[in-house]
Amino acid sequence: MQGLRQGEDPFDEGSTATGILRQPKAVWATAGASVVAFMGIGLVDPILPSIAQGLDATPSQVSLLFTSYFLITAVAMLVTGFVSSRIGGRRTLLAGLALVVVFAALSGTSSSVAELVGFRAGWGLGNALFVSTALAVIVGAAAGGSSAAILLYESALGLGMACGPLLGALLGNASWRYPFFGTAALMAIGFLCIAAFLKEQPKPARKTSLLDPLKALGHGGLASVAASAFFYNYAFFTILAFTPFVLDMTPYKSGAVFFAWGLLLAVFSVLVAPRLQRRFGSLKVLGASLVLLAVDLLVLGYGSHSTAIGATIVSGAFIGMNNTVFTELALGVSDAPRPVASAGYNFVRWFAAAAAPFLAPKIEEWSDVHIPFVVAALAALAGAAVVGVRRTALTHEAEELEPVHALEDGVTVFAD
Length: 416
Description:
Blueprint: H1 14-19, H2 25-42, H3 48-54, H4 59-62, H5 64-87, H6 89-108, H7 113-141, H8 145-172, H9 178-197, H10 212-216, H11 220-247, H12 251-280, H13 282-302, H14 305-332, H15 338-366, H16 371-389, H17 391-394, H18 403-408
Helix pairs in contact: 2-7, 2-8, 2-9, 5-6, 5-7, 5-15, 6-7, 6-9, 7-8, 8-9, 8-12, 11-14, 11-15, 11-16, 12-13, 12-14, 13-14, 13-16, 14-15, 15-16
């Protein structure tokens, strides 16, 4: 988990359990807004078929909702640190929230797929500005130490990933437009709470340049983590963006499936992965989890409908473990400041999140419904191969930086 030294267990610290609940209003406001921000990632999952029907679009066209969102998010990784190190964390959060409110509301008014894809791109920029700064703000304002703050942030991430599909299903059952309006309303509440309760955060002594994250990728270990995560993210977002079309269920049923998926993701990310890492080591856990994800993808692609549902839910466990281990490796494998390393790593991996939703339906059109999952499984195995081949480079442990200084730059983003 982010900000923890290797082997450190937040659950072994007596202060963490109580510290996570005893937080200032500013922390709860930021954490609450974070939940909604992360909900936006999986919000459209249960309503993808409904959007396709409502806008008379093909699956590949509707999947561009993810592509535009994550393509802008990837590019924004180079910008968020530049912005937040100049205007401060609070203003960056508010700017991100304002953009999400505007573009989420506009998404609900779309009359064509092209409009919706464009509005989702603006939404992606706002979300990037927000989530890239939220952890820094939570750590800076939290009581009970950084472990409690990081655990709170990871919990918000998991809860958001789980509740996004559920909200999409509940509102989308009436109309595919309602989830977008609902998200805009919730983020507007988050905007008001942060404006009221969060004071301006101190600006870092050194301003981040646009090229710093790219320069950090010159480190072999960080480049290896980013390359492995690129392949992994392709597999991850094939499940997230393409599976709803394969399952072809009502919004309620699809929302329930991805809610269960999100719960497993949260539990394995926050509770299971750290314990397995301490017992077996990060690289063994990551390699095994990527291989198991590949197997799960093949079962999903070739199994019966009921089997595909089960495999979709189970994939949340492997995704949760991978997210946590990748985050720790990205932040600790090089000697670059953690915010800079995180930005460079996320810049690379989000391009795969943009590619998978577009390519998976296209591959189905060119072949059949099974092959997109075969390609995703091969991508997961490629990620595991990078971990194995580059094991030596990935075992280098960077000198720890002071968490406050590392996080105040405001560009540390969720790597899940």
